[in-house]
Each structure stands twice: as structure tokens, then as C-alpha cells.
Amino acid sequence: MGSLGRCLARSLLRGQPGPSRPPGPRCYGSAPPELQEKTLVLVKPDAVQRRLVGNVIQRFERRGFKLVAMKLLQVWEGYNVVRSTRAMVGDTNSATAAAGTIRGDFSMHVSRNVVHASDSVETAQREIGFWFQQDELVAWESGDRDYTYGP
Asked: What string of H, E and C letters represents the secondary structure of 42-82?
């Protein structure tokens, strides 16, 4: 089971009798509502063909963002997620994308730069609307919300 599945399983166990949580990595991504943003990340066909989807998802989870919808697409949510995503993804031009960024590590050419990421909160809202109906976005709370973002 992937970390998203473990996080969902943990959230189902909250408030139920018995063991408090299964062992495993912490779940992140639930900022207070006033700090929430959503962004759209499209894993492009060249990344899918090269089997990089899991690597991309893991990088977002490690940054504390949570996946809230998926159609072979990902929408990430969290505090300052748009700016953080742009930094994680790297420059559009793979030749100038920094090492350690998704494009810097995996992109070969500007036309095959592995992912698309929204460049602003406003753009993200518009782009999310192109790909998802409101009822397709999953609302869930991480058990580690207070640990990640404070009380």
C-alpha cells in the first residue's frame, strides 16, 4: 500500500477503539483552511512512458502535500503549494532546470519536460476547473495536521 493509502487508512482509524495507528511514515498536507491552496500537476506522457509517476508523487508527499484528486492527473493541496511546486518542478527549459528538481533530474528537452504545474493560485483554480468537477476533489484531514502546521 502506498503512503496515500496508509494515510487514508489512518484517518479511518481515528476515533475508533483499538490500536491508535498502524506503524509507518507520517501523513502530511492538511494546513488550516485559511492557508490552503490547491494546484494542478500534469504528469506528461513522456514521464508516464518512462515510469516516473511514482517518483513525482513521492516528491510531493515528502514536501507535506496531499493528493486530493487523480485522473492520471494530480491536484496537490497545502500551505504555499503553488510556489513550492514551481520550485520543486524547476525551470520549464530542461537545460536550465536545477539538479534536484523534477525537470532538472528527468527532463530531456523543453517539449518533453515531464510535468506541467500551475504558475499562480489563480491559474491553478482555472486549470483545476478544466480537469475536475468540484465533487471529484477529495476532502480529507491528515492526522498530523497540527504537527505539520501547528495548533
From this structure: EECHHHHHCCCHHHHHHHHHHCCCEEEEECCCEEEEEECHH
Strand partners, 58: none
109 is catalytic: no
Q: How far, in Å, are 46, 83, 115, 119 from residue 143 at the CA level? A: 35, 24, 29, 29
Rounded distance, CA 11 to CA 48, Å?
29
pTM value is: 0.58
Strand order in the sheet with 36-43: 66-70, 74-79, 36-43, 115-117
The pLDDT tens digits of the residues spanning 96-115 come to 999 999 999 999 888 888 88
Angle at the Cα of 24 (from 85 to 55), degrees rounded to 5?
Answer: 35
Other Cβ atoms within 10 Å of 18 Cβ, number: 5
Cα separation, 114 vs 107, in Å, equals: 6
**47-67: per-residue pLDDT in tens?**
777 888 899 899 998 888 888
Q: Which of 116, 143, 144, 145 is catalytic?
A: 116
